TrEMBL record, chains A, B:
NCBIfam families: PRK05472.1-3, PRK05472.2-2, PRK05472.2-3, PRK05472.2-4, PRK05472.2-5. Homodimer. It comes from Paenibacillus sediminis. Pfam families: CoA_binding, Put_DNA-bind_N. This is Redox-sensing transcriptional repressor Rex.
Length: 216, 216
DNA sequence: TAGATTGTTAATCGATTAACAATC
DNA sequence: TAGATTGTTAATCGATTAACAATC
């Protein structure tokens, strides 16, 4: 077992392993090799072995990895062996879309509260179980329900203000869908899920429709 | 001016520069230095200078970058000086959310058609201008409207089938929101926008709520 | 001119991949 | 035993950062 600082790149691959392993489990596959994993996930087998070896000796030489055992281990590493409560701030279209993914997020991570600042939206049901609360109630609810992660799906201009609220309420991590670089204290982890960046950068890779000249 | 192979990391930063520069333009700031950009965007100034220098000498020593000029240049690099048409496949909650972002995507990239396989959704209006078409019409519409990018917001199991359809219709790039590794020919660029990965990996960085023991 | 800031080279840092002994 | 596959070290590759001459 190693215990250096684990790189972000490694951590981001863990959920990808977890998802595919869960699929294998459902198909009652009991063992898998780094080779097979790599083929399916478009990753180098050595990289997969190395990633996993950071956390322990989970495999068996000559055999591979026990699917069910590895799932348990990764879930533990990701702290998903306990339920993690999540707050959604912003009950617009995107927020609503995410709340419906609750079913997919069967990994012990659950959106347990939704907030919006628009009075018209307060009291609305989004998804089967979530009722939109006024944002003024965020602090109290976060503490009562032991919410540890916040998802921000509000418009750009409100994002920083919401982040401050979440941080003030004691949240530990934020998933930010607004295209803003949030300023947060160092103990709060922020991941940015900005699809406009993904989309616009795609254009770069299009075939040049126009002339292909090197103008200065 | 350089002209090696540009790394993916560089290309992904271009839209980030573009967005902030646009904000500066709106505020009538005419010049900006790599230092200021770096501060605001949480990036190393040297990295910003290097990124931009791959494409040309856009700055002026002792002065910085002309905001308006740099915007034009980046838009050109990203091929956003022409309109890029986009198709949305999957008119569920997420697809609907994205179609409303059309206003935000003022950068000449526009969702011009939406498709779904669910007969109940055909004919529905999503966003102000988009009417959901049956997926059988995808091939024809993509060709008629010169659509070059496809966004996949269908359930996991349908994602690969839809990708095949898009590729068959001659699309050049795909933004995939389904948590599936798509198999596509090498000339088709695929970006994955999988927020479940972002969300689950956040859990890793939470403070250990449980005991902090190194069990084997 | 003096101060500021670029473009670029060299140095550093980090991540991926290859290779292979250990061993099931 | 022979074949397969891990865990890990070493080699490679690529990306970030520091430093500075050029110059506005």
């Amino acid at each position: 077992m190693k215990s250096d600082k684990i790189s972000e790149a490694v951590v981001r691959r863990l959920p990808i392993y977890l998802r595919y392993l869960t699929e294998l489990l459902k198909r009652e596959v009991s063992t898998v090799s780094s080779q097979e994993l790599g083929q399916r996930l478009d990753l180098n087998p050595a990289q997969i072995r190395k990633d996993l070896a950071y956390f322990g000796d989970f495999g068996r030489k000559g055999i591979g990895y026990d699917v069910s055992y590895l799932i348990d281990k990764i879930r533990h590493i990701l702290k998903l062996d306990q339920q993690i409560n999540v707050a959604l701030v912003g009950a617009g279209n995107l927020g609503q879309a995410l709340s419906n993914y609750n079913t997919y997020i069967k990994d012990n991570m659950k959106i347990v509260a939704a907030f919006d600042s628009n009075p018209k939206k307060i009291g609305n049901k989004i998804s089967n179980t979530l009722v939109v609360q006024p944002i003024e109630q965020l602090n109290e609810t976060v503490q009562n329900l032991n919410i540890r992660i916040g998802i921000i799906t509000v418009p750009d201009i409100e994002a920083q203000r919401v982040a401050d609220l979440l941080v003030g309420a004691g949240i530990e991590a934020i998933l930010n869908f607004a295209p803003t670089i949030l300023k947060t204290p160092p103990h709060v982890r922020v991941h940015t899920a900005d699809f406009t960046t993904d989309l616009l950068s795609l254009a770069y890779y299009l075939e040049n429709g126009e002339d292909h000249v090197d103008n200065d």
